[in-house]
Amino acid sequence: FDVDSLEYLARKAGAQRVMLGSDAPFPIGDPEPRKVIENADFTEAQKKDMLSATAQSVFRVRSDCWCRS
């Protein structure tokens, strides 16, 4: 839930291997999960990977099927 931990993880594992997830079907632990990614020192491409592109690749979801809720 904090920038330092996320930046450390991205340095060790590679930003392209990190993606935002949820606690579903349980209540979300962080009410603003995007905030830590947006406040971290990542390029826009790395942020896009973490927020959508990596999940699209892993779960084979076409980008034109992606929707925001």
* Class inferred from helices and paired strands: mainly alpha
Rg over CA atoms, rounded to whole Å, is 12 Å
Query: What is the general shape?
Result: globular
Low-confidence stretches: none
**What is the terminal-to-terminal distance?**
22 Å
Helical content (DSSP H or I, runs of 4+): 40-55%
Q: Counting H and I runs of at least 4 residues, what is the number of helices?
A: 3
Mean pLDDT across all amino acids = 87
Give the SSE string. Answer: HHH
Compute the number of strand runs.
0
Chain-wise SSE layout:
Blueprint: H1 3-13, H2 33-39, H3 44-58
Report a brief summary of the structure:
48% of the residues lie in helices and 0% in strands.
Describe the structure.
By secondary structure, this protein is mainly α. 48% of the residues lie in helices and 0% in strands. The protein has three helices and no strands. The chain has helices at 3-13, 33-39, 44-58. The longest helix is centred in the C-terminal third of the chain and has 15 residues, at 44-58. The protein is globular and about 30 Å long. The two termini are 22 Å apart. The mean pLDDT is 87.
Q: Which terms would index this structure?
A:
single chain; 69 residues; 48% helix
